[in-house]
Amino acid sequence: xxxxxxxxxxxxxxxxxxxxxxxxxxxxxxxxxxxxxxxxxxxxxxxxxxxxxxxxxxxxxxxxxxxxxxxxxxxxxxxxxxxxxxxxxxxxxxxxxxxxxxxxxxxxxxxxxxxxxxxxxxxxxxxxxxxxxxxxxxxxxxxxxxxxxxxxxxxxxxxxxxxxxxxxxxxxxxxxxxxxxxxxxxxxxxxxxxxxxxxxxxxxxxxxxxxxxxxxxxxxxxxxxxxxxxxxxxxxxxxxxxxxxxxxxxxxxxxxxxxxxxxxxxxxxxxxxxxxxxxxxxxxxxxxxxxxxx
Length: 294
Known about the structure:
This protein is α+β, with helices and mostly antiparallel strands. It has helices spanning about 1-15, 40-45, 55-65, 75-90, 125-130, 145-155, 280-285; strands spanning about 25, 65-70, 95, 115, 115-120, 170-175, 180-185, 200-205, 220, 235-240, 245-250, 255-260, 265-275.
């Protein structure tokens, strides 16, 4: 029965959802958070992403603090193309209202989350057949496109990960928040659920001309709690602005976070890099569900 649970969990990984946002703005009560790049990766991404995939400083920040924020990770023209891709896919009914949880508890709860998501990945036939989105020549699928960029990012992360990252288990999606959207505090990886395989969460923002009045900041909680602030502990957090081109990476099991209320549309690529399944997972993965998404 345990073996069946792990197999069903792997199937669920393809259907998990997520969303978040970032860029440093420290609010009252908040606190500012305090391996070399591969030359071949830099060359491959020179026209689309920042020249340094992950600098030694980025790697150290991620290892020490559990999260890192990288501005201008992709160029403005690519931000625009990806944002248009989101709009085209929405027009062609590729998005669905986002749910929370997984396994038997995956359900719609508009008190916790209001957003839409479209699951991504190479060779997803339901996306490749949307001619208006470009098919195999889409901004996602083409050489040097989104999938290549994020594959190279995974390779760079493997340089600091204590375990390997399984490319076949990478989860990616577009997240769209309408005006009035939000996602309350949660974590992305929870023990005894399929989400325990998640090692790193990513957010890549596609918002153009974002300003503070637009809302939708990512709040990273640093109070030492999980899905809630511990009793008797003062709130401690960092708010990150979801400006286009900003990449946020964090350890999926270590950083509780939320998306603050949006006052305008909000666009992002969201994903998780997962480790491979181990023999221990068969015993550790119970049938209880849990875990959120970005």
